[in-house]
Design a protein that fits this description.
The chain folds into two domains: 3-252, Amidase signature (AS) enzymes, CATH 3.90.1300.10; 261-299 and 394-475, no CATH class. By secondary structure, the chain is of the alpha/beta class. The chain contains 16 helices and eleven strands. Helix content is 39%, strand content 13%.
């Protein structure tokens, strides 16, 4: 990692304002680092230097004129390759969209650009965000910067890896069932899943529309908060975007955490949890107690059913959303003698095995005779999981759990066993089903040097409370090994 790998948003701002570096030079520094490390990490799929240097030059011109700089002026960031970027290839990690170039920006990207960011490029991810290891990308797996033979987590593995490796100051990812929080945990960075509806999904290429959320990655809680402050808020282009006022997150997170009630659900600390992960998370909770938080034991009885319910709901929605990739309107087209043959051949060559598996699972769950038995029952379980959270937040301010049941596993280790891979989502899918906000923050490393993440959930639209606890943990020394 090069010497500048510890750039932060405040550090970038100070360096630009004092003219120690220009935004153009900073972008060039990051491209030099990408050139040096991306071949081994495979974290970026597409770079956008023309767009990046154009943005950087606008920032430099503003500094030269003495203009007030926007919040994220000159900050080099990366964007997950399922989020639309005007004029920059957006593949979703799939062969079916290999040459797709969107004609517009996602709202989150537009808002970041207005705040002055420099978008370096698009990051690798599991195909259509379907996966927990980033091994399902049509363009090869991403390698964990802490151990190149291990996965970075998924599906936003590229977005987590570029931040962990110092190849971007921050990044955008998406979270459907843990796709921000789990890679944040495995790569040793901070990653936030906002409340469903808090950040516009306009321009996000859909996987499961009732679960998909866009959120930020960074090396520290303040930088995560800075990105959220810019991308949060109502958007008339997204009918699921909530018209809920956005608080001053950066002010709120500095409030002391003494007196906060932290719920610790016993259901998240049982069988299947790696002993070193448990040890680190328990140590993190003890640190919070020393900082003045009050630990309250919880029961969340429907946790065990969450993975099954999630994989029915998410695959059913994926089956519906991915029906549009038929070779007719955009993306890959493989000619056939008939329309049906063209559909079949396009999807056969365009989709990878995991996407095909999920489409088939979802189509089955929605099919005549099975809809009530699977999809409706899964929705009922979703209601029960949401009720567990609602009941818990009557007693506590936040809920603290492990993020992932184990640290980063070896590439290829679980590829032959989809069920084992799906069970790795056991602690993240609950919050996804409930629609509440959650963050994963680093809380040390295993004896083998692999990062461990601690997860914090809060009530709907109370991201500031989640971030306040995370920031308090950071201030108390929570990033130590």
């Amino acid at each position: 990692m090069s010497s500048g790998a510890n750039w932060t948003i405040s550090g970038v701002r100070a360096a630009l304002q004092s003219k120690k570096i220009s935004a153009h030079e900073l972008a060039a520094e990051f491209y030099a680092r990408i050139d040096k490390r991306n071949a081994e990490l495979n974290a970026y799929l597409t770079l956008s230097p023309e767009r990046a240097y154009g943005q950087a030059d606008r920032v430099d011109a503003a500094i030269a004129c003495g203009d007030t700089l926007p919040a994220l002026a000159g900050v080099p960031i990366a964007v997950k390759d399922v989020i639309s970027t005007r004029g920059v290839r957006t593949t979703c990690g799939s062969k079916i969209l290999e040459n797709y170039v969107p004609p517009y920006d996602a709202t989150a990207v537009e808002r970041l650009e207005r705040a002055g960011v420099v978008i370096l490029g698009k990051t690798n991810c599991d195909e259509f965000a379907m996966g927990g290891s980033n091994e399902n990308s049509a363009y090869g797996p991403v390698h964990n910067p802490h151990a190149l033979d291990r996965v970075p987590g998924g599906s936003s593995g590229g977005s987590a890896a570029v931040v962990a490796a110092g190849l971007a100051v921050a990044s955008l990812g998406t979270d459907t069932g843990g796709s921000i929080r789990q890679p944040a945990s495995l790569c040793g960075v901070s990653g936030l899943m906002p409340t469903y509806g808090r950040v516009s999904r306009y321009g996000l290429i859909a996987f499961a529309s009732s679960l998909d959320k866009i959120g930020p990655f960074a090396t520290n809680v303040s930088d995560v908060t800075s990105l959220l402050s810019v991308i949060a808020g109502h958007d008339e282009n997204d009918s699921t975007s909530a018209a809920v006022p956005v608080p001053n997150y950066l002010e709120e997170i500095e409030k002391p955490i003494g007196g906060l009630r932290i719920g610790v659900p016993e259901d998240y600390f049982g069988e299947g949890l790696d002993l070193e992960v448990k040890e680190k998370v328990e140590a993190g909770i003890a640190l919070l107690e020393r900082a003045g938080c009050r630990r309250i034991p919880l029961k969340m009885p429907h946790t065990d059913y969450a993975v099954a319910a999630y994989y029915i709901i998410a695959t059913a929605e994926a089956s519906s959303n991915l029906a549009r990739y038929d070779g007719v309107r955009y993306g890959l087209r493989v000619p056939g003698a008939t329309l049906t043959e063209m559909y079949r051949q396009t999807r056969e060559k365009g989709f990878g095995p995991e996407v095909k598996r999920r489409i088939m699972l979802g189509t089955y769950a929605l099919s005549s005779g099975y809809y009530d038995a699977y999809y409706l029952r899964a929705q009922s379980v979703r209601t029960l999981v949401a009720r567990d959270f609602a009941d818990a937040f009557q007693k506590v301010d936040v809920i603290v759990t492990p993020t992932s049941p184990e640290p980063a596993f070896k590439i290829g280790e679980k590829s032959a066993d989809p069920l084992k891979m799906y069970l790795a989502d056991i602690y993240t899918v609950t919050g996804s089903l409930a629609g509440v906000p959650g963050i994963s923050i680093p809380c040390g490393k295993t004896r083998a040097g692999l990062p461990v993440g601690m997860q914090v959930f809060g009530p709907h639209f109370r991201e500031e409370r989640v971030l306040q606890l995370a920031r308090g943990f950071e201030k108390a020394g929570g990033f130590g090994d």
